Amino acid sequence: QFYTLDGTASEQSLYALLDGSDNSRQADPDLHITPIMLMSCGPYTIGPSDSVRVTIVEAVDGLPLEEVIDIPLSEYPTAQEKLSQGLGMLQETIDNFKTLYENDYHLADLPPPSPDIEIVPLPSSQTITISWEQIDATWQDPNTGENDFSYYSVYRSDRSFIGPYTKIKSKIRPGNSTDRRRYINSETGRWQYKDTKISLGVGYYYAVTAVDKEGNESWITNRNTEAVMASSQPALNTLNVGVFPNPFREKSGFPAREDANSIVWTNLPDTCSIRIYTSAGEHVRTLKHQNANSGEEVWNQLTKARQRTAPGIYFWTVDSKVGTAKGSLIIIK
Hints:
Layout: H1 11-19, H2 65-68, H3 76-79, H4 83-102, E1 117-122, E2 127-132, E3 149-157, E4 166-172, H5 177-183, E5 191-195, E6 205-212, E7 242-244, E8 248-249, E9 263-266, E10 271-278, E11 283-290, E12 297-299, E13 312-320, E14 323-332
Parallel strand pairs: 8-14
Antiparallel strand pairs: 1-2, 2-5, 3-4, 3-6, 7-9, 9-12, 10-11, 10-13, 13-14
């Protein structure tokens, strides 16, 4: 949305927007965008019926995320040398937009759009299903008027919304009868892909792209902004309660950055209490699990005082109406 301060607006009202005391124009935090941005243009002197066209470019580019996301500390000095390369890629993106603008936004090669996707975790089968409408059936290249749709590709990231992403299904081909039998849900008429190679407690991000016969591919504009994970159903007792990863190591736990400190209890009943203690018997945290759809509970390694736990040996207990359980946990940092 846009908000224009007209000539009657006071300096105080503008400052209230700047310092945040007036948040009426800020975006919803769930939108994952800048809460508020103020921009000014001009001043211009224009005559009656004249106009000024202002074009704003937001360019994002740089080094491939997979190349820089896990650079060891020892390589930081030499990694700085790559910044000029990233700056060059950013400038190239700006130059490409300038060419597009001068060409009145006409693209010689236009891929089919990325379809809107629906992501559904299936705890009973420990899978995550991605589905989408058959946009291939109605796609027409605006440049040629022909349907040059070729296939879909499915991508996944187990780290974050921005990736890096790995292609987990290279081609789902609408023109292939085997693919249509395998990947179209007969009840909904939608394309459907089941991701069976997942880990419980790990958050995943998905995207589906569309590719035409010339190899032009759409972008991952349909990815989910919040991680999706498949959880197991609640257990009927506490006989098989477990915790993972155990031992926990900072570099060998969950790959998702948001879940980097997560420790998960599994096979829990729908209602129970998890109490965590140090090896000296000091109470660290109590987790209240109340979920009729999941037998898992995640601990972010924060104590009841919101402090990060120290490395060491910890003990835990589970208490519920259907039984109790106990065990140990090792945290290595």
